Each structure stands twice: as C-alpha cells, then as structure tokens.
Amino acid sequence: MFAAAQKYLLLMFFSWCLICAPGCRLFQRGQEPQQAVVPPGSLPNPLPVPPLARELVMDEVSDEIDDYLPILKEERIRNVDGILSEGWIETRPKIGSSIFAPWQRDSTPGFQKQYATLQTVRRFAKVRIIPTAENYLVDLRVYLELEDLQQPIGSPVVAIPLRNHTLRDIDFNERFEVPNSGWIPMGRDFSLEQRILQGIQGRFAEAARQSNVEGCEGEDCGPQQRPF
C-alpha cells in the first residue's frame, strides 16, 4: 500500500512539473490573444444612433466615454461642402480599478474587477462616430494591456531579458521605436464596450424624444436632415 501511495505522489509531482514548465511562455510576447466571442443579445458594435444634430451627437458620446476613461483628444464632426466628416475620440490609458475602488467604472464588476485587483492592467479607448445617409454609427474599441515588469515587485532576483528578435528584424535605416513599451496587449475589453454602448444608447433614446418635441433646424442637423 505504501508503494502505491508513493507512485501516486510521483505521478502527481511529474504532472505538476509538466503543467508549470512552460510558465508564461504559453503567452507569446507581442501576439494578441484570441478575442472572446461577444455573447448573443449584446448591442451591435458599431452602434447605430439617431440622426440628431452633429454637435449633440459628439457631446453625448464624449460625455459617456468620459465617465469611464479620461479623454486625450477629440475631433468633432464637421460639415465640409455638404459632406460630414467622421468624428474621433481617443482616451488616455487608465490603470484598472480594483475591488477597493468600487466607485470607479472602468473595470466591470466580476472577473475584470478581480483581475485588476491581482494584476496591474490599464485600458484605453478609440471611438469613431461615422455619419451615414440614415444615422450615425458609433464604433467603440476598448483595449486592455498588462504591465510588463522585469521582475516581480519586491523580488531580489533580477530577471534576465530574453532575446526575441534577430538582426534581420531591424531596419537600421529607420528610427527604431517600441510602441507601448512596458505593457503587453491583452486584446479588447468587450464587457466594458457593452457597458458604455448601453449608456450611449440610453442617452440617445432620451435625446431623440426631446428632439422630436423641439425639432431640428439649421446646419447642425444630422444626416437625415442634411444628406451628403
């Protein structure tokens, strides 16, 4: 019986070694993990919104985005010779809020909130407001990144950087830059995208009701009133 127990312990030990041996090498640096499938019943992305005044459209989208992430730059929709240009909003990266900051809304409740508590992550968003012949489309993309440290915080052991490129990968005739140095792309945060889109949809539902009462006149009217 003692021999059987010994064999079981050895089997468990080698199984654990096989699982732990690859470690973080299972996640290759620079490669974005496969994006999760958006569950059925989610809002479409891009999200169609009513053809209201273009300044109102930009204000509503910008205000909703600012409730979650700080805005870095914004390009308003413009009417150039009867053609409406796209609107653009880009946010600053924001460190993910943990369970100890429930008033912060960037980390959605559940897994994302718990993950941001155990790991240092950040999010940023890029938004396109696209005029069409019938309405506007709000194309929202929220990106998630994981902090890349040379060694665990508080660890006395210095990690040895591993070479992951060859000389032929670098063009010495051009300036060599590493985008987002210190952060590992983790794909898109679909849960936060859906939460923001729900807020945008609610804002435009209320704005459309008020617009039907007040009406729309002048150059600021949406695509339906001023086709391009």
Keywords:
228 residues, alpha+beta, 4 helices, 9 strands, 29% helix, disordered C terminus
Quick recap:
The chain is elongated, with a radius of gyration of 24 Å.
Q: What does the model show?
A:
- With 228 residues, this protein is an alpha+beta fold.
- It is built from 4 helices and 9 strands, in the order H-E-H-E-E-E-E-E-H-E-E-E-H.
- The strands form 2 sheets. Strands 1, 2, 5, 6, 7, 8 and 9 form a 7-stranded antiparallel β-sheet that branches.
- A hairpin with a 4-residue loop joins strand 7 and strand 8.
- Helix 2 packs antiparallel against helix 4.
- The longest helix has 25 residues.
- The termini are far apart.
Average pLDDT works out at 76
Report the sheet with the most strands, covering strand number, pairing sense and barrel closure: 7 strands, antiparallel
Beta-strand percentage range: 15-25%
Termini distance? 84 Å
Question: Low-confidence stretches at least 5 residues in length (pLDDT < 50)?
Answer: 19-36, 165-178, 224-228
Q: Please state the CA-atom Rg, rounded to the nearest Å.
A: 24 Å
What is the total tally of β strands?
9
Shape: elongated
Tally of helical runs: 4
- Report the structural category: alpha+beta
Helix content: 25-40%
Instruction: Encode the helix/strand succession as letters.
Output: HEHEEEEEHEEEH
